[in-house]
Amino acid sequence: MDLHAENGALTPIIQTERLTLRPLAPSDIADLHVIAAQWPVVRQLGGWPWPANLAFTASRSVPYTGQGFVWGVEAAGKIIGSVAVTRGELGYMIHQDYWRRGIGKTVVAAALDRAFCQDNCPVINASVWADNAASAKLLCSFGFTHWHTRYEQAIARGYPVLSHYYRLTRPAWDGLRNTAKSRNSGA
């Protein structure tokens, strides 16, 4: 892993002008709980309860120690979302006040790059509810392809919802990155 604790503080994984991607910590619970209390966000998540549950949020406000990684997305000193690839599955959420600003695209690109290039994942899966066109569009912009559809229980919604499954292979990601590099270099 490319970060470590120094004097109790976790160092950032990725730092840009406007965002820091870093492990979540117990001190992030208040910011994360604000996001968990936003119905437009939580209704699109597969594993978060509604209404927001502080104990559940606390269980997600810790550094992840399983297979893969979970990063908090920090802007202006507060957590505005998270992005993760755990057990080969991509997931993300962004505070609704930060939608349509390119943040999702930035954090998903960083997560895919980490998962494929450093963690050497052969394939990454993702799923979106059928009524989440924005996330489906985001996934497709990275080369994800649809491979399966089925109904699943939506925890926050309390009923089964049609879910679309997407996957992205390492060769497809490499091809997309090489195409982007060629365009950027003028080749």
Any descriptors?
acyltransferase activity, transferring groups other than amino-acyl groups, GNAT_dom, Ribosomal-protein-alanine N-acetyltransferase, alpha+beta, three-stranded antiparallel sheet, Acyl_CoA_acyltransferase, 6 helices, Aminopeptidase, 33% strand, disordered N terminus, five-stranded antiparallel sheet, 187 residues, N-acetyltransferase
What's the layout of helices and strands?
Elements: E1 5-6, E2 9-10, E3 14-15, E4 20-23, H1 29-36, H2 39-42, H3 54-60, E5 68-75, E6 78-86, E7 89-94, H4 103-118, E8 123-129, H5 133-141, E9 145-154, E10 159-169, H6 170-185
Antiparallel strand pairs: 1-2, 3-4, 4-5, 5-6, 6-7, 8-10, 9-10
Low-confidence stretches: 1-8
Total number of distinct structural domains = 1
Strand order, sheet with most strands: 3-4-5-6-7
Structural category:
alpha+beta
CATH superfamily: Gcn5-related N-acetyltransferase (GNAT)
Number of strands: 10
Q: Main sheet? A: 5 strands, antiparallel
Q: Classify the beta-strand content into a percent band.
A: 25-35%
Query: What radius of gyration results from the CA coordinates?
Result: 16 Å
Which geometry do the CA atoms define? globular
Question: What is the class in the CATH system?
Answer: Alpha Beta
Protein name: Ribosomal-protein-alanine N-acetyltransferase
InterPro entries: Acyl_CoA_acyltransferase (IPR016181), GNAT_dom (IPR000182), N-acetyltransferase (IPR051531)
GO molecular function: acyltransferase activity, transferring groups other than amino-acyl groups
Domain N-acetyltransferase: 19-171
